[in-house]
């Protein structure tokens, strides 16, 4: 079948694995990947981004790299998954780049389906969670509410059930590299860059070993980044609340004037006064808080610190020796 990408040489595939304390999982994940990727192309590499792990992740990857084409990119500390993925994207050399979790939650079988889509001409293929029954009710409800709010207010459409499990063409990677913002929600940025995209449903596996590092604190901080980075609706809401409160206050003033004129003066109204002052104080503090959140984001962007820092970058041993071998071959011809 003639496809938009047929007739091109076999692409180099880079699979990025962000990893934070994933030694046990990587021992399973890397061999599995290296058994699957050759079905797509004979040129592939795995790039593990060690996000400041405190376990044996680094040693495990170095050991694996003796046998498999695995590179290790070590960040100088734990910067978070968003930064780890950005680092991986900056260093990925592939014509096709995959991002997936290191904990075996993203099924490698899906890569063949993704790749088929890429051959058909799609530039970004993302996994869509077929069901979220593995998550608790509260988390599911909160996630739904968050995406509902975001879809109403954001300037791009962010798919609710899509995650970071993706395959993308090198041109999408180049586009992502050109984005310089520091506080990142990659899912939003993936949506923002556009390109021919398609979602493919998949079922999330249970975590192979260890525990998730996305607790309620990390998730809510990511949600806040998502909202402030892709929508200014929270700022606008306060304009409407302010306008409504002023309108109410004005109507109340009219009532007070009229009742004084008609019924004469007496000095009640103390509770109304206190309630009014308290309410307005609360509303003002809240709105200043929302404003502060955006100012904090501006502050962090203006400081211009890098998204991550690299402490080490190691290419696989046998790739280096292969390179040497091929140079030798070339020189001996
Ligand atoms: N991860 C990371 N840095 C972090 C936290 C997580 O690179 O600070 C990686 C982690 O190793 C895994 C992926 O991000 O490969 C998803 O993390 P996790 O499984 O904890 O999250 P969940 O699957 O619950 O969303
Ligand atoms: Mg996980």
TrEMBL record:
Keywords: Membrane, Transmembrane, Transmembrane helix. Residues 15-175 form the Glycosyltransferase 2-like domain. The keyword Transmembrane helix applies. The keyword S-adenosyl-L-methionine does not apply. InterPro entries: Glyco_trans_2-like, Glycosyltransferase_2, Nucleotide-diphossugar_trans. The chain crosses the membrane at residues 237-262, 274-296. Gene3D superfamilies: Spore Coat Polysaccharide Biosynthesis Protein SpsA, Chain A. One of its GO terms (cellular component) is plasma membrane. Pfam families: Glycos_transf_2. SUPFAM superfamilies: Nucleotide-diphospho-sugar transferases. This is Glycosyltransferase 2-like domain-containing protein.
């Amino acid at each position: 079948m003639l496809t938009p990408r047929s007739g091109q040489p076999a692409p180099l595939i880079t699979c990025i694995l962000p990893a934070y304390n994933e030694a046990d999982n990587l021992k399973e994940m890397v061999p599995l990947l290296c058994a699957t990727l050759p079905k797509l192309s004979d040129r592939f590499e795995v790039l593990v981004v060690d996000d400041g792990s405190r376990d044996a992740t680094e040693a495990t990857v170095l050991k694996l790299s003796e046998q498999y084409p695995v590179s290790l990119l070590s960040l100088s500390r734990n910067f978070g998954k968003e930064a780890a993925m950005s680092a991986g994207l900056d260093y990925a050399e592939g014509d096709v780049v995959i991002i997936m979790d290191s904990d075996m939650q993203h099924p490698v079988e899906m890569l063949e389906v993704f790749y088929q889509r890429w051959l058909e001409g799609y530039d970004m293929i993302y996994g869509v969670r077929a069901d979220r029954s593995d998550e608790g009710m509260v988390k599911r409800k909160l996630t739904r509410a968050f995406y509902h709010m975001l879809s109403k207010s954001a300037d791009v459409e962010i798919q609710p059930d899509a995650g970071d499990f993706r395959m993308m063409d090198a041109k999408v990677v180049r586009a992502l590299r050109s984005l310089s913002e520091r506080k990142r929600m990659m899912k939003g940025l993936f949506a923002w860059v556009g390109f021919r995209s398609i979602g493919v449903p998949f079922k999330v596996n249970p975590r192979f070993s260890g525990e998730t590092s996305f607790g309620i604190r990390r998730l809510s901080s990511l949600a806040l980044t998502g909202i402030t980075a892709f929508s200014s609706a929270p700022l606008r809401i306060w304009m409407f609340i302010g306008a409504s409160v002023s309108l109410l206050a004005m109507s109340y003033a009219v009532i007070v004037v009229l009742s004084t004129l008609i019924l004469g003066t007496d000095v009640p109204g103390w509770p109304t006064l206190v309630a009014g002052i308290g309410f307005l104080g609360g509303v003002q503090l809240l709105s200043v808080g929302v404003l502060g959140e955006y100012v904090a984001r501006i502050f962090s962007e203006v400081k211009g610190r890098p998204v991550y820092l690299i402490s080490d970058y190691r290419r696989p041993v046998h790739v280096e020796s292969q390179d040497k071998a091929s140079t030798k071959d070339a020189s001996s011809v």
